[in-house]
């Protein structure tokens, strides 16, 4: 995923849109509010992004870039089996600092029913990337792709449970379950 070079005005618009879309929801935020908070005209917003839908796609891709960089920084060069657990550590840190309203991608998915929407495409790419990362780490650790599937389900479920405050330390609890699954498969 290549980063797009944006003008300073477009950067301001995207930064404001990111904050507002995540905090209030995509449908609750209009282009008038984004333009006003960004200090630009609606014409500038449309000149830079073309449409609110395209801006939503940029917002989700930008958030995905930050998430991926965060995961890679936490996982680093750890051995693959350890890397699988470090993905949970990355999620735990992210949830504590960047995600008080839960997963931006799950939230956006609920608001964007059109499968052709640029935001839905960004969401699908983000979830595929995470699944592929888990499958790659599992394969390099000589563990099954089924285990990677199970870990993805644990990660996604922990994200929702944490954001709803249903389970105290949901991500850490999911990490413990993941450690047990990894250990069980390694001992087969």
Automatic annotation (TrEMBL):
Keywords: DNA-binding, Transcription, Transcription regulation. InterPro entries: Homeodomain-like_sf, HTH_TetR, Tet_transcr_reg_TetR-rel_C_sf. It holds the Pfam family TetR_N. Residues 30-49 bind DNA. Residues 7-67 form the HTH tetR-type domain. This is AcrR family transcriptional regulator. It comes from Amycolatopsis magusensis.
């Amino acid at each position: 995923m290549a980063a797009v070079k944006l003008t300073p005005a477009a950067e301001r618009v995207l930064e404001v849109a990111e904050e507002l879309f995540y905090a209030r929801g995509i449908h609750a935020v209009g282009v008038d509010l984004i333009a006003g908070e960004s200090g630009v005209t609606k014409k500038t917003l449309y000149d830079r992004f073309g449409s609110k839908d395209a801006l939503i796609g940029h917002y989700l891709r930008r958030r995905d870039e930050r998430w991926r960089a965060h995961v890679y920084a936490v996982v680093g060069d750890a051995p693959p089996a350890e890397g699988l657990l470090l993905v949970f550590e990355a999620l735990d840190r992210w949830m504590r600092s960047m995600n008080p309203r839960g997963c931006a991608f799950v939230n956006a998915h609920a608001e964007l029913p059109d499968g052709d929407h640029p935001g839905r495409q960004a969401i699908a790419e983000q979830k595929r990337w995470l699944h592929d990362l888990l499958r790659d780490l599992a394969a390099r650790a000589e563990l099954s792709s089924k285990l990677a599937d199970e870990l993805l389900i644990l990660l996604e479920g922990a994200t929702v449970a944490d954001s709803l405050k249903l389970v105290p330390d949901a991500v850490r609890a999911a990490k413990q379950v993941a450690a047990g699954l990894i250990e069980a498969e390694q001992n087969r």
